[in-house]
Write a structure and sequence with these properties.
Oligomer: single chain
Order of helices and strands: HHHHHHHHH
Distance between the termini: 29 Å
Largest sheet: none
Strand content: under 5%
Number of domains: 1
Number of helices: 9
Structural class: mainly alpha
Radius of gyration: 15 Å
């Protein structure tokens, strides 16, 4: 089990996934709408949740009907947590990580890393940039 899996389990309040297969199972079983509250406690704003994971009106409906997030929403939530975890590990604090994720980055076409996390391809680009920064290629 990786440090990332340990952290995802802690952040979601579930048994830490042992593998990427376990992460996939979490997504396919669909996370509860209450998982969004956990994202908010990590410092992600409501407007960021609305833009990156689930529109806030849709979230309100899910909560009122006690419905789970869809597979797609669960995937976006875990993708956001994965990038936040990787950024926090690199920068040493959640505050510094969130600042970096929100700031337009010239290496990303002056878009913020958070803007790119909306898609799988975009989040891979952000994760690759984090690896490059960690290896000292870019600041």
């Amino acid at each position: 089990m990786t440090a990332l899996h340990q952290q995802l389990g802690q952040w979601l309040g579930v048994r830490p996934p042992e593998s990427e297969q376990d992460v996939l199972n979490l997504i396919e079983r669909q996370l509860p709408a209450s998982s969004i509250n956990r994202l908010l406690t990590l410092g992600v704003t409501r407007s960021e949740v609305g833009a990156l994971v689930i529109p806030l009106r849709t979230l309100q409906h899910r909560r009122s009907r006690r419905e789970k997030l869809t597979v797609e929403e669960s995937d976006r939530l875990l993708r956001l947590m994965r990038v936040l975890s990787q950024t926090e590990a690199l920068y040493g604090s959640r505050e510094r990580a969130l600042t970096w994720l929100r700031r337009p980055n010239p290496r990303l076409g002056n878009r913020s890393p958070f803007e790119l996390v909306k898609t799988d391809a975009g989040s891979r680009i952000v994760e690759e940039l984090l690896v490059q920064i960690d290896e000292g290629m870019f600041v």
